[in-house]
Every structure is written in C-alpha cells, then in structure tokens.
Design brief:
This protein is mostly helical. The chain is 72% helix and 5% strand. The chain is built from six helices and four strands. The strands form two sheets. It has a two-stranded antiparallel ribbon with strand order 1-2. A two-stranded antiparallel ribbon has the order 3-4. It is elongated, with a radius of gyration of 62 Å.
C-alpha cells in the first residue's frame, strides 16, 4: 500500500454568504418589527377586549342584581298587598264584632235598666208603705192632738155661788172622762207600738236559714265505650264550682260518682219531653242571635236518651 502525499488548496468565497446573511438580517429586523407591531396590536386588542368584557360583565352583574332586586320587590309587594287585604278583612270582622257587641251591650243595658228601674220602684213603694203610718200621723193625728190639747186646757169656772157645786162636779166629770180616754189612747198606742216592733223584727229576721231548699244543678256525664269496657265519668263544671262552696261541690261530685254504676240510658218519658219543650221555649224567648238559637236547637233530635 503506497502513501500519497498530495496537497490541495481551496479558496472559499464568503461574499454571497455575507450578502445572504445581510439579506436575512434585514428580513429578521423586518420580522422583529412586525412581531413588535403585532405584539403591540395584540396587547391593545387584548386590553380593548378585556375592557369590553369587563364592561359587559359589569353590565350583566348590575342587570342580574337589578333583576333580583326587582323580583324581591315584586314578591314583597305581593306579600304586602296580601297582608293588607287580610288586615282589611280583619278590620271589617272587628268592626262587625264591635257593632254586634255594641248592640248586645245596648240590649243588655236596656234589659238591666228596666230591671233596676222596676226594683227601684218596688223599693220606693215599700218605703212609702213603711212610712205611710208616720205620714198619716203627721197629717191627721198631729192636728187632732193639737185640738185635744187646746180642749184640755184647764178652765177656771166663774159662776154664781148657787151653781158653784154643780159646775165643779161637771168639770170634775169632764176631766175624769178625758183622763180615761187618755189612758185608753196611751194603751192603744203602746199596743200598736209593740206590734210594730214585732213586725219590724220579723221583717229583719233572716228566715232563709231556717228552712231546707232543694236545688237541681246540671252535671255532665261522659260515657266512654271501648272494646273491653264501658266507663262513665262526671266532668268538672267550673261555673258550678265557682258559684258554691268547695265542700258542697265536692259532695255533689261524690254523690254523682257513687251513683254512676246504677245509671242506665232510657228513652224519653213525659217528664223528659216536658223538659225539652221548656228548654225550646226558653231558647225561642231568649234574646240571642239567630245563629246561636239554631245551633242550640240543632243539638236536639229524635234520638235523645236520658239517664
């Protein structure tokens, strides 16, 4: 294998490359300028877009808030109108109730006014009857007594000596008769006074505690029926309890409870029908509203039973 010792010389011309690089450099500078312009335009566009989006978001937010506020205002307005209508209805109901209560008050006032006026007139008549003897005494007896006193004034007889004895005897007889009549009048007065005192004492004596009275009081009995048993129980009556002593009320309830087992339901008899007719008559004559009367009468039917 031989060794070659050949040498080569190369000449490289870089001018075209330099020109190309210069041309590329110009293009790069133009591209850099274009990129800078584009970047500036993009940034400006992004800022404009961001501002536009912000404005739209702000407008949408305010519109949503205003819509919610308007909806809430509408709901509150509807509730307010409904409440106002309910208040108006309650006002009308209260006005009707006030009118009815005023009518009831006037009716009750008129009824009790007549009652108290009749009581006052009755008391006035009784007082007049009690004072009648005294008034008669003042109008009649006083004048009679005054005339009697004038007639009983002693007289000095002045007569002739012949008739002096007879005149004295006549005067003595007259004085004796007046004295007798005075004694009888005093006796009659004392007797009448004693009788009047006894009569007054009898009027002032409380005779209500000297006799026994029987009162019928209402007691409500409730019968509870289950599968296993039937139980009856007397209900508490606050009105009855408040109008009598605790001992009397307890005695009544104990008496009803002790007789509870012997109570049996039975059809209406003649006495029960009389009670119902009397109750219906009382309801019809009572000064109550018609709806209350109708409700009370509706509670009575043909299937009533009594204990």
């Amino acid at each position: 294998m031989g060794v070659f010792n050949d040498s080569y010389d190369f000449t490289v011309d870089t001018s075209p490359m330099a020109e190309g690089m210069e041309h590329v450099s110009d293009k790069v500078r133009e591209t850099t300028g274009a990129v800078a312009l584009m970047e500036t335009a993009v940034i400006a566009q992004e800022q404009a877009s961001a501002k536009h989006i912000g404005n739209k978001l702000d407008l949408g937010f305010f519109n949503v808030v205003m819509s919610q506020i308007a909806q809430r205002v509408a709901n509150e307005s509807a509730q307010t109108q409904a409440l106002a209508m309910e208040l108006l209805q309650q006002q009308k109901s209260l006005q009707n109730l006030q009118t009815r209560m005023n009518g009831d008050y006037a009716m009750i006032s008129q009824r009790y006014g007549k009652l108290f006026n009749s009581l006052n007139q009755e008391l006035r008549n009784r007082i007049t009857e009690l004072d009648k003897p005294l008034m008669e005494y003042c109008t009649k007896s006083v004048k009679v007594l005054q005339n009697r006193i004038l007639n009983l004034v002693s007289q000095v007889p002045v007569y002739q000596s012949e008739s002096l004895a007879a005149s004295q005897a006549i005067a003595a007889a007259r004085i004796k008769g007046n004295a007798q009549r005075l004694i009888e009048a005093v006796t009659s007065y004392l007797t009448n006074d004693k009788q009047q005192q006894q009569h007054t004492k009898d009027l002032q004596t409380d005779t209500a505690t000297q006799e026994q009275l029987t009162y019928y009081v209402p007691v409500a009995v409730v019968e509870e029926t289950t599968e296993n048993r039937t139980a009856m129980q007397a209900k508490d009556n606050p009105t009855l309890r408040s109008n009598m002593s605790a001992a009397a009320y307890q005695q009544i309830m104990q008496g009803v409870s002790s007789q509870m087992a012997s109570l049996q339901w039975k059809p209406l008899d003649e006495q029960g029908m009389n009670v119902i007719n009397a109750f219906i008559g009382m309801v019809e004559q009572a000064q109550l509203p018609e709806r209350v009367k109708e409700k009370m009468l509706a509670m009575f039917n043909d299937n009533l039973s009594v204990l």
